[in-house]
Amino acid sequence: MFRTIAELVEMAETKEMPISEVMILQEMDVKERSREDIFTEMEKNLQVMENAIERALQGVQSVTGLTGGDAVLVQKYMQEKRPLSGPILLDAVSKAMGTNEVNAAMGIICATPTAGSAGCVPGTLFAVKNQLNPTREQMIRFLFTAGAFGFVVANNAFISGAAGGCQAEVGSAGAMAAAATVEMAGGTAQQSADAFAITLKNMLGLVCDPVAGLVEVPCVKRNALGSSQAIVSADLALAGVTSRIPADEVIGAMYRIGRQMPPSLRETGEGGLADTPTGRLLKEKIFGVSV
Amino acid sequence: MKYNSVFDIIGPVMIGPSSSHTAGAARIGLAARNLFGKQPRWAKIYLYESFAKTYKGHGTDFALAGGLLGFATDDLRMSKALDIAKENGLEIEFIEDNSRVDHPNTARILIGDGNDKLELTGISIGGGKVEITELNGFQLRLSGNHPAILIMHNDRFGTIASVTEILAKHEINIGHMEVNRKDVGKEALMVIEVDQNVSDDILEELQSREHIIQISKIES
After folding, report:
1. Which of A110, A121, A147 sits opposite B6 (nearest CB)?
2. Is CATH 3.30.470.10 correct for B148-218?
3. What CA–CA distance (Å, rounded) separates A123 from A97?
4. Which end of chain A is more exposed for a tag (fewer CB within 10 A), N or C?
């Protein structure tokens, strides 16, 4: 069983297989399940992600009315104007936000690694798909690769905002998506690790400060950040840019930073954006109490 | 390692909005329900730290109720679980507790009906994964995600051996096991996580052995 990114990369290199395959073999071994069985379950997760994006692009609204409709706005803008950031990046952003709009509307999503950060991985996947034209199997493998990196984060640090802030959620999710994008684009295992490290480095210190304690503001747009950073980092790594700080040490830094975060910035809805005049006003409006 | 499956990371499929506050909460509720073995008539749920501060926004309240009703994380009835609980004669009270706890997402659940009671503390550690940390006053560490049997027994020599012998006979592999007791020679709790669900015949066989007081199981 791999415990670190270094071990994961080494296993992929020595056995001359992609990271997705290392994850698949470990899952078969630890859970005593067949390859077919595992693929079927992951395919179901992929389908849930695809359905959530489809639903988002038809337009959704949360119960509070705080979020919804932005994914549609961005798609419309892409069709009518020439976006500055390019179609793939903006498509990823739209689909990432859309997934989280569905989540905020209490729809069905697949946590990757969490619900609050569930947009980053599918948003990225269903956008780069248009350029890389993967098979369905390659799309499923994308999720195994993302899962392998998330697995190391979860076991060495944390993946929940309550434990480590948003860096642990959208930070991890964006980094997982970056690593998986590199593999799908034909990059090496080490390049996946570099893309992962670059993304997570740029997310360090990100706090979890949901307005009114709801997974809406700023969560939906933080997923836009996660997926866009994933694609930029994947491109950097594929261009040959490396991370000076190894991925495992970045995870270590993320862990220590999370431990130093006060509870007010770890999903209590008490600090940061939740504690702005508008944030407090929104909470009062939604719950009808003075805060 | 806390997480041992790729599906802990890519998954669960769930009703939003939060994996730890909604899906995890549902799994804690479901674990309590499974261990109680039937639908409770009442529940008192104490919420701590992040759970206490944000439970309304995250739907932690309806998710816990959904779990107590036996709903899985992707059950479409989840957001209506509080109403469904009422319709099914399950009275639930939520209490925000300011006490310090070890984990920011902690819930303590007391459930019961006319005859029986159960007290359970669960933590939601991220991505929908949970651990049960206390049951009826016994400290333990149990992930609600694997099949498990919990055996209340008298603290006497040979009791553990008689249990493991039966499991071995039925070719059931033990993944994790721990034993806790309140005092020497008093009541003790055996927690056994296994690789496959344990059938009722085997539970009956276990129940028939000397010094076994009560058995409950978690299916997965």
Report:
1. A147
2. no
3. 8
4. N
